[in-house]
Design a protein that fits this description.
- By secondary structure, the protein is mostly helical.
- The chain has three helices and no strands.
- Helix 1 packs parallel to helix 3.
- 25% of the residues are buried.
């Protein structure tokens, strides 16, 4: 399921903006889970292969490439999460909502209602952040898939060099 939202000439309702942002955040979570599974499999496979004994020189030379792709994918996943948490914290701070660092996305009741202009501005910021997090989480999935392919090449190199 792909969710894309482009506001048209009609004025969208706040519920629609929030709904699109929530859908993108759910997709970010799914993408992060997919990337985590790929990276976990690569990590377990690499550690178990290295525990069996050091591979040949060629396989050892390819290991930094595998580690670099792993680090890039993990970095994108972490950046996606940190971006979302930071933006949610900023929005909650600007709207006067108390900030709970352990769960920054949990809504708290505000003592006063927000002005419609402020509410719409903050919802657009949330939507923009959700789009950015979606992009980062997709990059995490793409790099984790590349890491899995590199792992297969690395594993073949270890088998061919007699490791």
């Amino acid at each position: 399921m792909i969710t894309a939202f482009r506001p048209g000439p009609d004025r969208e309702r706040p519920e629609e903006l929030l709904g699109h942002a929530c859908a993108l955040v759910r997709l970010c979570g799914r993408d992060a889970a997919i990337a985590a599974v790929f990276l976990s499999l690569v990590l377990v496979g690499t550690v178990s292969r290295l525990a069996a004994g050091l591979p040949g020189v060629v396989a050892l030379a390819l290991l930094p490439v595998l580690g670099g792709a792993f680090a890039i994918s993990a970095g994108y996943a972490v950046r996606s999460r940190r971006t979302l948490v930071a933006v949610l914290g900023e929005v909650r701070g600007r709207t006067g909502a108390p900030v709970d660092p352990s769960a920054p996305w949990t809504p708290f009741g505000a003592a006063t209602a927000l002005d419609a202009r402020v509410r719409d501005t903050e919802l657009r910021r949330l939507l923009a952040a959700a789009h950015r997090c979606g992009e980062l989480s997709w990059l995490a999935v793409a790099w984790s898939a590349a890491t899995a392919v590199l792992f297969l090449f690395w594993w073949l190199a270890t088998a061919m060099t007699g490791g």
